[in-house]
Design a protein that fits this description.
The structure holds 2 protein chains of 2 kinds. Chain A is mostly beta strands. Chain A has no helices and 11 strands. The mean pLDDT of chain A is 97. Chain B is mainly β. Helix content of chain B is 0%, strand content 46%. In chain B, the strands form 2 sheets. In chain B, strands 1, 3, 4, 7, 8 and 9 form a 6-stranded mixed sheet that branches. Chain B has a 3-stranded antiparallel sheet with strand order 2-6-5, with no helix packed on it. The mean pLDDT of chain B is 97. The chains are: A mainly beta, B mainly beta. At the A-B interface, strand 5 and strand 10 of A face strand 3, strand 7 and strand 8 of B.
């Protein structure tokens, strides 16, 4: 069974750093891109970036370029999103999603990680 | 790129059909037949319902169908059921490893 399991909820202060994770299992991790999607409180889905584990290369939405960093650890089939300095506006649920191997859609989603940034 | 345009809400009675539109541009929906639709129940992760405009993943009821004309894609839910009440998001590939989502439509089953 394909699964994407994300790390748990985080509460941070402005200016702090954070790294959240998304562990893939039940499939060949290197064969699928991992997309990241933001959902701010009460709002819609926003596509942030996609990273391809085979190459560790990420393509960022212009809206998020420079705001966050994406990476993978192939040895433990895990993708990461990282902030160096959080802002209150980063408060949101962040989803990872597996890109279909042959298609251009996301066929399996993580459960989401709630990040709350508050002083 | 700008978000795709969806109506904020839609509704229908059980058994009826409802269609949700998703309008993009010639840079996304109009160029690529890679429009997908996702269903999201409150507090849950999105679920893929339609991909490549009108294809259904296994397990998704055939009451869900998709189409596209020009820069506008549509999701039709036939034979509405209570469990269809959810938020629905369209998404389109926009080239160069970029994607764009719609603003979402809240579907209410009356």
């Amino acid at each position: 069974e394909v699964q994407l399991v994300q790390s748990g909820a985080e509460v941070k202060k402005p200016g702090e750093s954070l790294k959240i994770s998304c562990k893939g299992s039940g499939y060949t991790f290197l064969s699928h891109g991992i997309g990241w999607v933001r959902q701010m409180p009460g709002k819609g889905l926003e596509w942030m970036a996609i990273i391809y584990p085979a190459y560790s290369e990420a393509t960022y939405s212009p809206s998020f370029q420079g705001q966050v960093t994406f990476s993978v650890d192939k040895s433990i089939t895990t993708a990461y999103m990282q902030w160096s300095s959080l802002q209150a506006s980063d408060t949101a649920i962040y989803f990872c999603a597996r890109r279909s191997r042959l298609g251009l859609h996301f066929d399996s989603w993580g459960q989401g990680t709630l990040v709350t940034v508050s002083s | 790129q700008s978000a795709l345009t969806q109506p904020p809400s839609a509704s229908g009675s059980p058994g009826q059909s409802v269609t949700i539109s998703c309008t993009g541009t010639s840079s996304d929906v109009g160029t690529y037949n890679y429009v997908s639709w996702y269903q999201q129940h409150p507090g849950k992760a999105p679920k893929l319902m339609i991909y490549e405009v009108g294809e259904r993943p296994s397990g998704v009821p055939d009451r869900f169908s998709g189409s596209k004309s020009g820069n506008t894609a549509s999701l039709t839910v036939s034979g509405l059921r209570a469990e269809d009440e959810a938020d629905y998001y369209c998404s389109s590939y926009a080239g160069s490893n970029n994607w764009v989502f719609g603003g979402g439509t809240m579907l209410t089953v009356l």
